[in-house]
Each structure stands twice: as structure tokens, then as C-alpha cells.
């Protein structure tokens, strides 16, 4: 508001980005593996496109037919977790292409990673962007001109660049929504950037995803949305009842309440009952885009007679589906928007739908936090 090759023992990207600060003078004690990435530079360039947009043509009848396959139901004790692992794998592609990105540094901290092919566009704006070699990075990095000392000045200067690149179609889907640029969640923002540009700068991104469920006769069911076919990203795909990115200047809780109202018509009185249950993370490289996202997960038990009503036109319809059937759909299809699968798989662990007896249980659990949760 998703299929890749599955490996039970895939290498994690977390260790590659374990630190985000650097000194711009030589430091023999610097051991951050996130900085060592920049030392292995590749000459390969990629097209400046993103595959974030896709169309899915399936019906709710298709969803229910696949969901009812008992042979795949976690509650029936199936030990095959391969389908879940594939969905997580799809959110963590491209680790072999890390050397094609160089650090984006602001105030002596790494705040992102930019593909070398994309930097060719930024070099045209030499009054805004600076390319340097120095210190702990041990290679090229991108920064902003020192003339932009304050966050508001950086925001304005970079916005002018993004506007031009958007007009040229280099950065599609401009939303006029600002995301904070910072090295970690609790750090102050060094400036703000247009949301559509965030993957091109490899920023840390944050969002809130809520599992809205109903419990009847001991059975839990999830309210699932089907995205509008007019959405610029993932049109027609399945989605959470409520989910959204975390813009600049709003807390997770306040953002969740706002999204509850806009996406499902949930009042603040009910939305305030949502329980924060943790986070999942992933790192995904798709051509020149590098997503380093952390999703804060919430559960909300809804009244049995609750029926969601979309308010912003971004959801085509909603259906209430038993959790076990939702699990089957995730495992057997690519109907869900990719990162939603991670949040629902996390719910399957917490609510006992995936059990320790299943082969690959711990591998699957660890994979849900494959990115840098900072």
C-alpha cells in the first residue's frame, strides 16, 4: 500500500554493510566491511531502469483456488519451506553486483550507494555533486558540494537535479514525497530526497506494514488488498491491508494511523490498538537501483464485523482470507508485492504456522533480516 533461485545457505548482505560512518582521513583501524566494498570497483555499467513496475493479471478466484490447496498448508505440517525462501531471495538479489556501486557520503557518513553508471548523469551537475578519493573509503565516493552546509540547502539543491532527471525520464514516477536521508534510523536527517529517487542513491528506506487480522472460532484470517491497476508500481498485485513508506518528519506510529485511514478507512481509535511486533529487512539490487529497506511490522486484531473501505483510490478491493491460505498463495505464486511476503512470513513464525520441525526453519527465520537493521 515477486521469483528467484532459492539457497538455504545464501551469504547475507548484512556483514557487507555493518557500518555507515567514516573519517575522511586515513585510518588504519577502519575495518568496516561496508567501506571495503568500494575498493573492488567494476567497470560494468547497466541500463538506468528499474523493474519495480509489473502487471499481474489474476482474479480473487485464482487466489482462493490456490489458497485452498491443503497439501501446501503450514497447519497441516508441511515441511517444504522452499517457496517462502524463494520470495525472500527475490527481495535480496544482486549481491554479486555490489562492486558496481560507490558510496554516497554526507557529513563523513555513508548514507547511500550509487551505481557507477548512474553517476554519469550526476557528473553533469558539478555545482551540486562532487566526486572524490580519500580516507577510509579507499576509492571513489560521491558527496555534495561543501557550499551546501545545511540540510535545507542540500534538499533544495538535490531537488533541482531530481526534477531535471525526472523530466528526462531518467528517474521515473516522481511522487513529490520527501524521504529522509540518514545513515541509520535514529540518526538525524542530513537532507531529504524525492521518494522515487531513493533507490538510485541507495538510501536506507523505512516503512510500516500492518497485518490486519480477524479471529473467528479459533481461526485467524487476514484482510488482503489488491492494488489498483492504475498504480505505477506493482499494479494489480496483492498487498497488506495497510502499508506505506515512512516520509520525512513523521513517526512510525503516526504514519501507521494515517495509512490506516487512507488505505482501509480504519479509525484512529482502532488503529491505535496496533501492536509493534518487530522488523524485517532486505537489500536488493535491480540494475542501477539499490534498495536497503527496513519494514516495521505491526499486528492489529480487528472486530469480526469490520470491513475495510479504501479512501485514496490505491486499492481495487479487499478480501478476508484464512492465514493458512495466505501462506499457500505466498509459497505457490508471485501474486503478492514482493516485500509484503517477508512481513507475512514473519507473522507465520510468530503465530505458529511455521514450525521448528520444518527443514530450513532457522535459515528462513534469519533470512527475514538479511539487510542492515539500523
Automatic annotation (TrEMBL):
InterPro entries: DUF4743, NUDIX_hydrolase-like_dom_sf, NUDIX_hydrolase_dom
Protein name as catalogued: Nudix hydrolase domain-containing protein
CDD domains the UniProt entry points to: NUDIX_Tnr3_like (cd03676)
PROSITE patterns (alphabetical): NUDIX
Pfam families, per database record: DUF4743, NUDIX
Domain annotation Nudix hydrolase: ranges: 205-346
Amino acid at each position: 500500500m515477486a521469483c528467484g533461485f532459492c539457497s538455504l545457505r545464501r551469504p547475507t548482505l548484512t556483514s557487507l554493510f555493518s557500518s555507515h560512518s567514516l573519517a575522511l582521513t586515513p585510518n588504519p583501524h577502519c575495518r568496516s566491511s561496508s567501506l571495503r566494498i568500494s575498493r573492488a570497483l567494476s567497470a560494468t555499467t547497466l541500463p538506468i531502469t528499474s523493474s519495480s513496475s509489473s502487471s499481474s493479471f489474476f482474479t480473487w478466484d485464482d487466489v482462493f483456488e490456490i489458497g485452498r490447496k491443503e497439501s501446501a498448508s503450514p497447519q497441516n505440517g508441511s515441511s517444504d519451506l522452499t517457496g517462502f525462501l524463494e520470495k525472500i531471495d527475490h527481495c535480496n538479489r544482486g549481491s554479486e553486483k555490489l562492486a558496481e556501486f560507490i558510496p554516497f557520503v554526507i557529513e563523513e557518513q555513508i548514507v547511500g550507494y550509487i551505481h557507477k553508471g548512474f553517476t554519469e548523469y550526476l557528473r553533469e551537475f558539478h555545482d551540486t555533486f562532487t566526486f572524490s578519493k580519500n580516507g577510509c573509503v579507499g576509492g571513489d565516493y560521491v558527496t555534495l558540494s561543501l557550499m551546501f552546509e545545511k540540510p535545507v540547502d542540500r534538499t533544495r539543491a538535490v531537488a533541482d537535479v531530481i526534477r531535471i532527471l525526472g523530466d528526462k525520464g531518467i528517474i521515473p514516477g516522481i511522487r513529490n514525497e520527501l524521504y529522509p536521508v540518514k545513515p541509520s534510523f535514529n540518526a538525524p536527517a542530513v537532507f531529504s530526497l524525492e521518494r522515487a529517487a531513493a533507490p538510485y542513491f541507495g538510501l536506507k528506506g523505512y516503512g510500516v506494514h500492518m497485518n490486519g487480522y480477524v479471529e473467528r472460532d479459533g481461526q485467524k484470517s487476514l484482510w488482503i488488498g489488491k492494488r489498483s491497476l492504475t498504480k505505477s508500481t506493482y499494479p494489480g498485485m496483492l498487498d497488506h491491508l495497510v502499508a506505506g513508506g515512512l516520509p520525512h518528519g513523521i513517526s512510525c506510529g503516526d504514519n501507521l494511523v494515517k495509512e490506516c485511514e487512507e488505505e482501509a478507512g480504519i479509525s484512529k481509535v482502532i488503529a491505535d490498538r496496533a501492536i509493534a511486533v518487530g522488523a524485517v529487512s532486505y537489500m536488493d539490487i535491480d540494475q542501477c537501483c539499490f534498495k536497503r529497506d527496513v519494514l516495521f511490522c505491526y499486528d492489529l486484531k480487528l472486530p469480526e464485523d469490520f470491513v475495510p473501505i479504501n479512501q485514496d483510490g490505491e486499492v481495487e478491493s479487499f478480501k478476508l482470507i484464512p492465514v493458512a491460505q495466505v501462506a499457500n498463495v505466498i509459497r505457490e505464486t508471485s501474486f503478492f508485492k514482493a516485500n509484503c511476503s517477508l512481513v507475512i512470513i514473519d507473522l507465520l513464525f510468530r503465530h505458529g504456522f511455521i514450525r521448528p520441525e520444518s527443514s530450513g526453519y532457522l535459515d528462513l527465520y534469519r533470512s527475514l533480516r538479511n539487510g542492515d537493521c539500523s
